[in-house]
Amino acid sequence: MRRKNCACTKDDFFPEESWKSWGNYAKGLSETPKRLIERALTRSSDEVELEAKARSHHEMKRTLTWWDFIWFGMGAVIGAGIFVLTGLEAKEEAGPAVVLSYVVSGLSALLSVFCYSEFAVEIPVVGGSFAYLRVELGEFVAFIAAGNILLEYVIGGAAVARSWTSYFATLLNFRSDKFLLTAHGLADGYNQLDPIAVGVCFIICIIAVSSTKGSSRLNYIASIIHIVVILFIIVCGLIKSDTKNYTPFAPFGARGVFKASAVLFFAYVGFDAVSTLAEETKDPGRDIPIGLVGSMVITTTIYCLLAITLCLMQPYENIDANAPFSVAFKAVGWDWAQYVVAAGALKGMTSVLLVGAVGQARYLTHIARTHMMPPWFSYVDEKTGTPVNATTVMMGATAVIAFFTKLEILSNLLSISTLFIFSLVALSLLVRRYYVSGVTTNANRNKLIICILLILGSSIGTAAYWGLSEKGWIAYCVTLPVWFLATAGICIFIPRARSPKLWGVPLVPWLPSASIAINIFLLGSIDKDSFIRFAIWTAFLLAYYFRKS
């Protein structure tokens, strides 16, 4: 029996029948192959995902509007990416053309935002991409995708927490590594301990579990201050600009622009966390599209203006890779401005951590509702209306990684999972619009499968050829027309099986198909180590999934 809200029982962690006795466990093992096939091919439904909310014991409070979503959206993405990676990519990969890199990454993110918005409106639950993929592509694909996005949030949060410490040291006029403690007995890369990052994660966790609306209000304050500082950087930076610094514009060519785009996509990671707040929205059909699309347009504009300002202030080869904006102001004689920049960066990273904590906990909550993770994680506190257990565990994992792991190692592990999941969400939208079991004929289903395979194959071919051939162009004459014809085939030959009830993505199938192509193309520009990490983590998820099955 559960005596108190905080009490736990065995069923909270192992609710399946196979855990009831040793006999049941042995029987479950013998049936694993059959059950695995059934679960891997099973698709959920909108109704099942909505009904899963009852497993959290209490409803989340509907308090958010489109205004909250816009500020949550900006708070989720405007942080470490723009202040840490812009200088590095401008100096080593793109030059002043880094602004084009932000445009490409922003376009990819905006297309994904449209896809996420329709799903969030139609299926307003906290599960985010896990719920959407579970409905359209099945439980197996959804679990692998959700596992990767959770890892991405933990690693991203740890990277931001480490950056927070560095900028805090800069604000106090110390070296960026002033507050790191060296543990000589640990391996290199894991021996620079960061207790301040742990403290920041602890404080963010307390705020996130206290109240979603309270988190939103704090995010308002932090984001407003952050926007004021960004405007200061843009206006004052342009005052000290020199157009000669924009020559040459693209010293590393188009390849450098796209390579930087893949890395700078980290600067846009986070908006998908905002879609997990759909369950707490007053009017999902209005608030979600306005909030998500509006925040992404504003964010992309800000990023481009900051990139232009930085490269006009200094020649790209002189830009500092670690603190580009602070050093740029110092280079033009405004030493005092570095403190304003550091304060703005801290505010931005605080918002990223807060929104990330709110979003990642809701992902885990919905996964636990489906019993793909222990149901204990799905508990929603009656008083606060927040998923206390999931928030605490996810922020605890973030704090542990942030405490030990060097920022450079963390930054190498980002982006690939997010691009992979964004591609799957766009693919899911095509399936949602053109396939409904019992409605779509077998002939139309087969046509859809062929067209989707051609879209995926041509996109992968384009990305692979881009990565392998620096000057070739012949393969593009094949892959690009195949992508166009496959998308046109869906548009012309396959009737739509479903229309959105409240709000829908425009230009279907072209918009989601373009999202798939751009995301996969950016994947082709990511380094080998990221793919190795992706493979190792996915193998771990497969092992866990087989064990659960």
Overall number of strands: 2
CATH class: Mainly Alpha
Strand % is under 5%
What sort of overall outline do the alpha carbons produce when their principal axes are compared? Answer: globular
Mean pLDDT: 80
At the fourth level of CATH, the homologous superfamily is: Amino acid/polyamine transporter I
Q: Estimate the helix proportion, in percent.
A: 55-70%
Layout of helices and strands, plus pairs?
Layout: H1 22-30, H2 32-41, H3 46-51, H4 66-77, H5 80-94, H6 98-122, H7 129-136, H8 139-171, E1 181-182, E2 192-193, H9 195-210, H10 212-239, H11 253-264, H12 271-275, H13 284-313, H14 324-331, H15 337-369, H16 388-404, H17 407-411, H18 416-434, H19 442-468, H20 476-493, H21 510-523, H22 528-548
Helix pairs in contact: 4-10, 4-13, 4-15, 5-11, 5-13, 6-11, 6-13, 6-18, 6-21, 7-8, 7-18, 8-9, 8-15, 8-16, 8-18, 8-22, 9-15, 9-16, 10-13, 10-15, 14-15, 15-16, 18-21, 19-20, 19-21
